[in-house]
Amino acid sequence: MSTGDEKAALRRELKTLREEAHARDPDAGETLASKFPLKLLERYGPVVAGYLPIGSEIDPLPLMERLEAEGAKLALPRLETDGSMTFRAWSQGTDLEDGPMGLRQPLESADTVDPTLVLMPLLAFDGMGVRIGYGKGHYDRTLSGLREDGRVFACGLGFHAQMLDELPAEPHDQPLDWAVTERGSVPIFMMRTFKGGGGRDDGPGAA
Ligand SMILES: Nc1nc2c(c(=O)[nH]1)N(C=O)[C@@H](CNc1ccc(C(=O)N[C@@H](CCC(=O)O)C(=O)O)cc1)CN2
Ligand SMILES: Nc1ncnc2c1ncn2[C@@H]1O[C@H](COP(=O)(O)OP(=O)(O)OP(=O)(O)O)[C@@H](O)[C@H]1O
């Protein structure tokens, strides 16, 4: 099976997995907010892109609120008419509009920003930082642009149940640098550092 086919089949299973995790712990977003290490904001802030949760995604809003109170400038993704994704400045109470695929998103008139810390929704991730999303490549393309232009830190947000041993990777996949679940941090860049040396048999530890 090609990696693309594998990913399509995986996505269906992963959606079910995430729905189950969400049903078991609907308040996981609150727990996640309390476990998020503020040193990530200190090192990689201040412009933090979050998202408005759809379906069974873990709710990042409690975390975004906490980070804003700590001085973060928040942003949200916006799908543009040309199919690209931009990030726009946002804070609680800023106007939103209906976008494609049932998304709520900032208006075209909102300021475009380059986030330094991107909190990413996902269907699943693994200890090497491979992430699977909805398969439209929005985050992959946008992150690759941001990484070419300068420094950006990619942090996946999800349920612990969404962390799998190993996901199929494709060359265009933009790896996560870190992930946070309701159980704590998964510092992926350390695993990447270890990859060339001792292999990845130790597995990621959710601290
Ligand atoms: N909350 C959130 N916002 C986001 C994303 C995301 O994954 N999550 N995106 C990430 O790229 C971008 C939007 N891209 C998207 C691409 C595909 C689908 C999609 O296939 N949606 C399903 C329904 C999902 C559900 O209910 O769980 C659909 O339309 O059938 C949604 C958003 C930007 N904003
Ligand atoms: N940097 C890029 N440039 C051009 N096309 C890209 C790039 N990154 C991804 N794509 C395209 O986007 C499509 C979806 O990619 P992929 O399946 O990896 O998405 P995903 O990582 O699951 O989720 P998400 O949509 O959230 O990024 C692929 O067909 C791929 O060719």
TrEMBL record:
It catalyses: (6S)-5-formyl-5,6,7,8-tetrahydrofolate + ATP = (6R)-5,10-methenyltetrahydrofolate + ADP + phosphate. Belongs to the 5-formyltetrahydrofolate cyclo-ligase family. One of its GO terms (biological process) is tetrahydrofolate interconversion. Its EC number is 6.3.3.2. This is 5-formyltetrahydrofolate cyclo-ligase. Substrate binds at L52, E57. It comes from the Bacteria. Pfam families: 5-FTHF_cyc-lig (PF01812). Keywords: ATP-binding, Ligase, Magnesium, Metal-binding, Nucleotide-binding. InterPro entries: FTHF_cligase, FTHF_cligase-like_sf, NagB/RpiA_transferase-like. It is an enzyme of class 6 (ligase). ATP binds at K7, A8, A9, L10, R11, R131, I132, G133, Y134, G135, K136, G137, H138, Y139.
